[in-house]
Specification:
heterodimer; A: SH3 type barrels; 2 helices; elongated; B: 366 residues; alpha/beta; Rossmann fold; 6-stranded mixed beta sheet; 5-stranded parallel beta sheet; 11 strands; disordered C terminus
């Protein structure tokens, strides 16, 4: 029930209270989402959406922390491809 | 998809599991509160990656599962009325009331519709002014802001044909009830990340002080959950009872202020009965006095409907983490997702449904 998924804000419209809305892309599927509760969210940023309403803006710096944590453990390096390898 | 797939990396998940195995020195029992987390744990087999002695028990965090039977009966009564379009999330349609479910009402001619968002129900009320549109507002704190927006929009648009049948529940009072129970086995919690995206996590600080249990606000993907488990075990192993936040990309300590402001305007805290558990004081939301005109129970005169729980179903014990689904004699035999005895087998987030769906697949592939 509390399922909420991240999506990228493509556009924002509507300034009326309760009606700030935007087109949000979920891996290519675009839906209209109410953005009233994420007034700080801008086009190009990610928001977490639950039943048609954005409940939080994704903090991109924080989003990397779990990977930083694993890297600090010194266990991520061996999983990374060599620097000269592409793709 | 960004901020999703990268948290499902199998190699990194195993790295976290290995770290966890190094950290654990004795048995611990943790509870993940949210049904979405339960679903991810069973789906990705995360519990099978845990070191011996570290157990995850599944919490009450499935609103469909804890909606009391009399509210289902009220929904059935309202939905059967000819003037009503009854809107609900899909999960609620097959939850058994005392005699039938919403799908049966629909089969008998009731206008029961599944909507993706409560805002869709408001649009429907605008489009169908001659009909009464009722939305079944079930959920935890995560869903309350969306339902609050729907009611506030209905007022803004001057709609007289929109109402909510409210069955909102709150997480911290349920955690308190679990910790206060003499049967309690829970030594640490993974708190539900999306609930905290709205509420923040200051409410957990008194719980931690009172019961000396660590609580880690945790996300929903495999890496999130295992990191949440690791943080919680770390606190337990070092003897610290604190609140920590694993899900920092979505949760701030103070929560979502604009959402909380509207929720506090539209709703008020009320006592609420939890299916299988009983009444918990101050554990639910009802419409505030200012929005009482949107209360479907009053509008349709069903406030007095009562009903008793029945039978063999042990969902109450499962929701409190005392028993696990496969320990129920009816599991998979007399109780299946097609013929559920209780709501934990109906909802896709119910622990019984998750075990039924994924544990059979695992059994077949091993």
């Amino acid at each position: 029930m509390c399922l909420a998924i991240p999506g990228k804000v493509l556009s924002i419209a509507g300034d009326e209270p309760l009606q700030r809305a935007g087109r949000v892309s979920f891996g290519g599927i675009v839906k209209e989402v109410n953005l009233s509760f994420v007034p700080e969210a801008q086009v190009g940023e990610y928001v977490i959406v639950h039943v048609g309403v954005a409940i939080s803006r994704v903090d991109e710096a924080e989003a990397r922390r779990v990977f930083d944590y694993l890297r600090q453990m010194g266990e991520l390096e061996e999983l990374e491809p060599p620097k000269n390898q592409t793709g | 998809m960004k901020f999703l797939d990268e948290y499902r990396d199998a190699a990194l998940t195993r790295q976290l599991a290995a770290k966890l195995a190094q950290r654990v020195t004795r048995p611990w029992t943790l509870m993940e509160v949210c049904g979405g987390q339960t679903h991810a744990i069973v789906k990705f087999g995360l519990d099978t990656l845990l070191p011996p002695g570290l157990e995850l028990v599944h919490g009450p965090g499935c609103p469909v599962c804890v909606t009391p039977i009399e509210l289902i009966d009220k929904a059935l009564e309202i939905a059967a009325r000819p003037e009503v379009i009854f809107c609900s999330f899909g999960d609620m349609l097959r939850v058994p009331g005392s005699k039938m479910d919403l799908l049966s009402v629909k089969a008998r001619g009731g206008d029961v519709r599944i909507v993706y968002s409560p805002i869709d129900a408001v649009k429907l009320a605008q489009d169908k002014p001659s009909r009464e549109v009722v939305f079944f507002a079930v959920g935890f704190e995560t869903t309350a802001p969306a339902n609050a927006i729907a009611v506030a929009q209905a007022r803004q648009f001057g709609l007289k044909n929109f109402s909510l049948l409210v069955s909102h529940v709150l997480v911290p009072p349920a955690m308190e009830a679990i910790l206060a129970s003499p049967d309690n086995r829970v030594q640490g919690f993974l708190a539900a990340g999306h609930v905290c995206a709205i509420m923040g996590y200051t409410e957990y600080e008194p719980l931690v002080r009172k019961h000396r249990v660590p609580i880690v606000v945790t996300g929903f993907e495999p890496l999130d959950i295992l990191q949440g488990v690791l943080m919680c075990v770390d606190l337990l192993e070092s003897g610290r009872a604190e609140v920590e936040n694993q899900y920092t990309r979505a949760v701030r300590r103070e929560g979502n202020r604009p959402a909380l402001e509207l929720v506090r305007e539209v709703f008020r805290v009320v006592p609420r009965k939890w299916r299988g558990i009983g009444e918990i004081p101050q554990s639910g939301l009802g419409l505030s006095e200012a929005y009482a005109e949107f209360d479907a129970e009053m509008r349709f005169g069903v406030a007095g409907v009562g009903a008793e729980e029945s039978g063999e179903c042990i969902s109450g014990l499962i929701l409190q983490g005392v028993r696990k689904p496969h320990e129920c004699p009816a599991f998979g035999a007399r109780c299946t997702p097609d013929h559920p005895l209780g709501a934990t087998m109906v909802s896709s987030e119910g622990a019984c449904a998750a075990y039924h769906r994924y544990r059979r697949v695992q059994a077949a592939t091993h």
